[in-house]
UniProtKB/TrEMBL annotation:
It comes from Chionis minor (Black-faced sheathbill). Keywords: Glycoprotein, Membrane, Transmembrane, Transmembrane helix. InterPro entries: PMP-22/EMP/MP20-like, PMP22/EMP/MP20/Claudin, PMP22_EMP_MP20. The chain crosses the membrane at residues 7-29, 65-85, 97-118, 138-158. It is a multi-pass membrane protein. Belongs to the PMP-22/EMP/MP20 family. It is found in: Membrane. PANTHER family: EPITHELIAL MEMBRANE PROTEIN 1, EPITHELIAL MEMBRANE PROTEIN-RELATED. This is Epithelial membrane protein 1. The keyword Transmembrane helix applies.
């Protein structure tokens, strides 16, 4: 049981770190242009220098929603990690990890909503680019989506042990 808890803890920490990286870094979409490689993220567009991400007024609300949901997912993931540690030492068997699992599933929903909005609105749209593809931050966000769901379910299953 201790090995299982340690494994879940390590995966949870890895998920938090990957969420930070995927939200902060500006490599959600990568494209090629005359000036070289262009990458866009949730905050900036980078070529040789980084500048404010040019977004049309019709997509501005969508971008703000993606930013908000990704930040919320980080917050909920960190809260779930703290709650896991607190519940591990304070609650008795059979009552542990309800709150942690529920918070992690809320984190999962935030990631799902944020990345889904980004996929629907911004896939393939890199300004001044001839061809584009998804960057590592987009892929990390989907990996975090899977990990947070698995961790949330495992916390709910572990409550019985």
């Amino acid at each position: 049981m201790l090995v299982l808890l340690a494994g879940i803890f390590v995966v949870h920490i890895a998920t938090v770190i990957m969420l930070f990286v995927s939200t902060i870094a500006n490599v959600w979409m990568v494209g090629s242009s005359n000036l070289g490689k262009v990458s866009t993220g949730l905050w900036l567009m980078c070529n040789k220098t980084c500048e404010q991400l040019p977004v049309s007024s019709s997509n501005e609300a969508s971008l703000k929603a993606v930013q908000a949901f990704m930040i919320l997912s980080i917050i909920f993931s960190v809260i779930a990690l703290v709650m896991f540690i607190v519940q591990l030492f304070t609650l008795e068997k059979g009552k542990r990890f309800y709150i942690t699992g529920a918070i992690m599933l809320v984190c999962w929903m935030c990631i799902l909503i944020g990345v889904s909005i980004y996929t629907a609105r911004f896939t393939g749209r890199v300004p001044d680019s001839t061809s584009s593809h998804h960057g590592y931050c987009f892929i990390l966000a989907w990996i975090c989506f899977c990990f947070s769901f698995i961790i949330g379910i495992l916390y709910l299953v572990l409550r019985k042990k």
